[in-house]
Amino acid sequence: MSRYRLLFALEVRHTWFSSGWCVGVRIQPTGACEQLMRRYRLLFKPTAQGGEMYFDEAAQQSDVPGSLLDLSARESFTFTLASGFAPLANYTAIDAQPLATPGVSLYAFDNVGGGAATFDGKPYPLLHPAGTPFALGALACVSRRLRFHADAPVSQVTVRDAVTGSVVLGPQAIAPAVRQVSLAMPSQPEGRYILSAPGVEDWPFFLTDAPLSGVFAMITIHPRAVAAADGSGNAACLDANGHVMAQRYTIALDARALKWRYLIVPHASQTSDGWHIEGTWRRAGRGQRTEPIEFVRADAPLSVDGRNAVVFTSTGALRVGERLGEAMAIALKGDGLPEAVTLPFPDVTRGLSSYQPSVAEGAGSGGTQDAVADVFVYL
Question: How far apart are CA 307 and CA 324, in angstroms?
Fold first, then answer.
């Protein structure tokens, strides 16, 4: 009789949400993962926090088909991570450059070389280094017949497992030397790899057959102990004898911080000479201290729909969140206003076009730290 027990759980936390959990997260096994699940009699259950993988405790004997005792160190479980709430990149602090391109590249998390964090008084293994969830950067996502475009002609290529450093393909000679290399990897498991060629920069990529529409990241769980190339270990859920050590793996994401810019359009006959913005936020903890949020008024107005808008920009980056009104207050005050005007907060969940990210004055271009959340206010 089957008795299912927890093998591991995948949980995604996010500071944008007041609950601390990433609402709307969707974690699904890839096709390759489902094949392993059938072979080892595993069940996956989606949860509000992510998902849980269960094993048949009654099958954990050496003479029973589907026992995890037969699972090899090369086998791993892969999952896609997406969000049904809003695109995660809109409101997540991403500490990697360049950013991932939807459908072309994505982020990756796994249980090798990760850190640990404490939540609700309990320690959890992280699927990334502590404090840097996107340490692996954005990886090109390719199928089993891949093409690599080199900056210069190459005459030899080698593909290594990005985790263990072991060579899985090559060195493969190419004659004559070419810039575009085509390779087939029909039997390699899904996961991270690195293509190397003399004279060109290494190319890290993620090999998968999974559809990428709406996918933000890939998750890989290596159930057995892994000897990583950099000497780091992994939080395994199977010991050396194949016995289960149930784990709750966690991805801890933070809300993004960016400058806020208010574009306030007055009535045609309304004076705005003495307008200013006053902002405060309450620091959590004892005493509920209140601190000011500073905004600087632009010297000149901007034209919005043929009307002049008064522009105020925060002096520093402000973190976005689900319930900012519980800890923050921002109001427009000054001459010509019968009373203070409570200003709305930027909504970064509706897509990039809703808040029109632009380059902050005096800052460089390209990074999320340079984006500005535009809020249009019509009086």
Answer: 30
12-29 tens-digit pLDDT: 999 999 999 999 999 999
- 127: which residues sit within 8 A by CB, 6+ positions away? 10, 109, 110, 111, 114, 219, 249, 250, 251
Return the structure tokens found at 118.
């404490």
pLDDT digits (tens, 9 = 90+) for 41-79: 999 999 999 999 999 988 887 777 778 888 888 899 999
Predicted confidence (pLDDT) per residue in 271-312, tens digit: 888 899 999 988 765 566 788 999 999 999 998 888 899 999
Locate 79 and state its tokens. 């999952």
Report the C-alpha gap between 77 and 63 in whole angstroms.
23
Contact 137, 119 (CB under 8 A): no
State pLDDT tens for residues 125-136.
Answer: 999 999 999 999
Examine the pLDDT at 357 and tell me if it is beyond 70: no
Among all chains, which residue has been given the structure tokens 């009535």?
A: 267
In this prediction, residue 287 carries a pLDDT of 60
